[in-house]
Amino acid sequence: MKRVFVLLTVFVIVFVLFQANLSLADDVRMFNYYQIKYKINDKFDVFIQPDMRFNDDIRELYYYHIRNGVTFHALENLDLGATYRFLESKSGSQWPNEHRLELEAMPKITLGDYKLSYRGRFEYRWLQNAADRWRYRSLGKVAYMAEIGDFAFTPYISNEIFYDFEINKLHMNRATLGADKKINENLLLGLFYLNETARAGETDEWNTRHYIGTKIVVSF
């Protein structure tokens, strides 16, 4: 009971702060994360993941991508992945595209009711309107397997930093608070809040953006 109380208190505090941030934000944005995953065997999964993002207070589509790839369950606590992504992101009246090759390693461990995970991802980015480049993304995540009565869900916090090798600088940070609910063996739903801080070009100026997000994962 004490754990539930602490968990609810943390979520109430974060929700209040989230609402305060949104009231001050110029533009509230939205992530829509969808994934269809197919288990080939105990070692390999394949997936496709379309994603749409909206800005202008969730009124205008400004970004979409399609990712497809394979995950190799190398060890009990280690997954490896290879992915191709195609995306278009609106810039003025144009929609320049990007192709990406993504290679990642994902160690993970469970300690009691907590799940700790890390994802290290190298990306090679073919950009239509800029020089091709490498980028590294470092994502740490802590999830808690919670229950309130018969309602089981998984709240989590994560933080991801982006390092651009073309400019040799950190250029983005994403902090996320969310919760996932497994509906059955084939369906997982999630909601999250994401705070993104991005460098303005190569300057020392940083811009902050607020996102609300939805997640739907279908597994076969």
Helices and strands in order:
Blueprint: H1 2-24, E1 28-39, E2 44-55, E3 60-75, E4 78-89, E5 97-111, E6 114-127, E7 133-144, E8 146-148, E9 151-164, E10 169-184, E11 187-199, E12 206-219
Parallel strand pairs: 1-12
Antiparallel strand pairs: 1-2, 2-3, 3-4, 4-5, 5-6, 6-7, 7-9, 8-9, 9-10, 10-11, 11-12
Structure characterization notes:
A hairpin with a 2-residue loop joins strand 8 and strand 9. An 11-stranded mixed beta barrel has the order 1-2-3-4-5-6-7-9-10-11-12. The protein has one helix spanning 2-24; strands at 28-39, 44-55, 60-75, 78-89, 97-111, 114-127, 133-144, 146-148, 151-164, 169-184, 187-199, 206-219. With 220 residues, it is mainly beta. The chain has one domain (2-219): Beta Barrel (Porin), CATH 2.40.160. Helices cover 10% and strands 70% of the residues. Mean pLDDT is 90; it is low at 4-9 and 15-20.
